[in-house]
C-alpha cells in the first residue's frame, strides 16, 4: 500500500482516530497535513511523523467555515506541493434527548461534521479533478447507519456524510477520484462512547459479536487501504469497522 510522495490531509488529526490515521498514512510513505483546533496536540503528531522522515504540516482551521476550509486546502498544496487524499475526520458531539436538545447543539454538530466534510471535499475536489486522481475518505459512524438514542444530531450528521459520499462518488468517478466512507463502531474518541457510564458501555458491547471495543488503529488500517492503489476500483462504499455491531 505504498503512498510514497502522496500528500494526505487529515482533519481532526490531533488525537484518537485522526491521529492513528495520520500516523498510519505516514507509515505507508505519505506526507501528511494535519488540520486541528488544538494545535499543540497536533504538533506532537507532527513531530512523530517527521521522525519517520516524512513531511508534515499543521493547520489550525474551523472546517465548518467554508472560507477557512478553502484557505487551508490552498495552504496544504502550497506547502506540500500537491494533494492526493482528504480524510474528513473532524467531528464533535453535543448529545441530548430530542425534547431537550437546543438549537445550538443541533447546529454545532451539523456544521462541524457534515458541513465541514462538504467544505473540505468541495475545496479539495478542484485539485483532485485537475490531477485526475485522488481519494476522499469520510469518517462516518455506525450511528449514521442505525441511529442512537440521545444522538439525533450526531446520527443525522453521520447519515448525511454517507449520502455525501455516495453522491460525490458518482460525480467524481469519471475523473478517477474515489470517494468512500468508513463507519467506526465502539472506538474511543469517535464521539459515540464519550461520557458513557460503564453500565451503558457494557450494554453496547453486548451487541458487538467480537466482544470488544475497536481501536483507532483498526480504522486507520482501512483508511490506508482505501487511500492506496489497491482500492482503485472501490468507490461509493461504506465500510463498517465495528466488530459486527451494525450487521
Overview features:
46% helix; Rossmann fold; 247 residues; seven-stranded parallel sheet; alpha/beta
Largest beta sheet, briefly? 7 strands, parallel
Strand content: 5-15%
Number of domains: 1
The CATH homologous superfamily name equals NAD(P)-binding Rossmann-like Domain
Any idea what the radius of gyration is? 17 Å
Distance between the termini: 28 Å
What is the CATH architecture assignment?
Answer: 3-Layer(aba) Sandwich
CATH class: Alpha Beta
Order of helical and strand elements: EHEHEHEHEHHEHHE
| Shape category | globular
By DSSP (H or I, 4+ residues per run), the number of helices equals 8
Which stretches of 5+ consecutive residues score pLDDT under 50?
Answer: none
- Structural category: alpha/beta
Number of strands: 7
- Average pLDDT, to the nearest integer? 95
Topology:
Blueprint: E1 7-11, H1 16-27, E2 31-35, H2 39-50, E3 56-59, H3 66-80, E4 85-88, H4 103-131, E5 134-139, H5 143-146, H6 152-172, E6 177-184, H7 198-205, H8 216-227, E7 238-241
Helix pairs in contact: 1-2, 1-8, 3-4, 4-6
Amino acid at each position: 500500500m505504498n503512498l510514497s510522495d502522496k500528500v494526505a490531509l487529515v482533519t481532526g488529526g490531533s488525537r484518537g482516530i485522526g491521529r492513528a490515521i495520520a500516523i498510519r498514512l505516514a507509515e505507508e510513505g505519505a506526507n501528511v497535513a494535519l488540520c486541528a483546533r488544538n494545535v499543540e496536540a497536533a504538533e506532537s503528531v507532527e513531530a512523530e511523523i517527521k521522525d519517520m522522515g516524512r513531511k508534515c504540516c499543521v493547520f489550525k482551521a474551523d472546517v465548518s467555515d467554508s472560507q477557512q476550509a478553502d484557505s487551508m486546502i490552498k495552504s496544504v498544496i502550497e506547502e506540500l506541493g500537491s494533494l492526493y487524499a482528504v480524510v474528513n475526520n473532524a467531528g464533535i458531539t453535543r448529545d441530548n434527548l430530542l425534547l431537550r436538545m437546543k438549537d445550538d447543539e443541533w447546529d454545532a454538530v451539523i456544521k462541524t461534521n457534515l458541513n465541514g466534510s462538504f467544505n473540505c471535499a468541495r475545496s479539495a475536489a478542484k485539485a483532485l479533478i485537475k490531477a485526475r486522481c485522488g481519494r476522499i475518505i469520510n469518517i462516518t459512524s455506525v450511528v449514521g447507519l442505525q441511529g442512537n438514542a440521545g444522538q439525533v444530531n450526531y446520527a443525522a450528521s453521520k447519515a448525511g456524510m454517507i449520502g455525501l459520499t455516495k453522491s460525490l462518488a458518482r460525480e467524481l468517478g469519471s475523473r478517477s477520484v474515489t470517494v468512500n466512507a468508513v463507519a467506526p463502531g465502539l472506538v474511543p474518541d469517535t464521539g459515540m462512547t464519550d461520557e458513557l457510564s460503564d453500565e451503558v458501555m457494557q450494554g453496547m458491547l453486548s451487541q458487538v459479536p467480537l466482544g470488544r471495543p475497536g481501536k483507532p488503529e483498526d480504522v486507520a488500517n482501512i483508511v490506508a487501504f482505501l487511500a492506496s492503489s489497491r482500492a482503485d476500483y472501490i468507490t461509493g462504499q461504506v465500510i463498517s469497522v465495528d466488530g459486527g455491531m451494525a450487521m
